[in-house]
Amino acid sequence: MAARIVILISGRGSNMAALLAAHLPLVVAAVISNRPEAEGLALAAAQGVATEAVDHRRYPTREAFDDALAAAIDRHQPQLVVLAGFMRIFTPAFVQRYRGRLINIHPSLLPAFQGLHTHRRALDAGVRIHGCTVHFVTEELDHGPIVAQAAVPVLPEDTEETLAARVLRSEHRIYPEVLRWWAEGRLKLQEDGRVLLERAAFPDAALQVPGSGA
Ligand code: GRF
């Protein structure tokens, strides 16, 4: 039976859309947002995917919100919870509940530029290479075992917007591929926290790792 995932979003949902468009060998059981007005919810609904909003503003504490979110997620019985532009920080209890089953994409080459405004900070720092990272989620924000990364050049004429767009294109390439490996049983998080990838490679780009020679 195909594995089930739930995707969590907060806004636009372009990574979620890329995951749906990839027709992965898994069931997207639901897309859940902490913002009822998230554009991505309408996109998902238009594709026949169940959607739900758990509005964080309606809960008095982070714990109460996380409990409500976990209840909404668990109703769909996913094997993996996929963060795709989900902009809330979890309590440790939430992260522990989904240990090894919570995966995220972050718009920088971690451990550089954890947190927000990664593209502006990359420009300010003057780095020549920037990118995105898919990683398992741990209690520490934007940490956790790295599964894959894609790098892009930072060009002299770049603005925050042009750089963000270039990184986003790589996000849309690597996230579906990582989930394909997971769906096919080729991606595991070991007990020791190490990521195990079997026969996993991006065939087409030297700046995406693992590459074809890996
Ligand atoms: C992406 O850049 C993602 O890496 C970051 O937030 C952005 C979400 O974009 N966490 P979208 O909602 O997937 O279009």
Description:
This protein has 214 residues and is α/β, with parallel strands linked by helices. It has one domain: Rossmann fold, CATH 3.40.50.170. It is built from six helices and ten strands. It has helices at 14-21, 39-46, 62-74, 92-97, 118-125, 160-183, and strands at 3-9, 26-33, 51-53, 80-83, 102-106, 129-136, 146-153, 187-189, 195-197, 208-209. The strands form two sheets. The chain has an eight-stranded mixed beta sheet, with helices on both faces. A two-stranded antiparallel ribbon has the order 8-9. Strand 8 and strand 9 form a beta hairpin. It starts with a strand and ends in a 5-residue tail after the last strand. The structure holds 5-O-phosphono-beta-D-ribofuranosylamine. The site of 5-O-phosphono-beta-D-ribofuranosylamine has 14 residues, from helix 1, strand 5 and helix 6.
Count of DSSP helices?
Answer: 6
Question: Which kinds of small molecule does this entry bind, naming each only once?
Answer: 5-O-phosphono-beta-D-ribofuranosylamine
Straight-line distance between termini = 30 Å
Radius of gyration: 17 Å
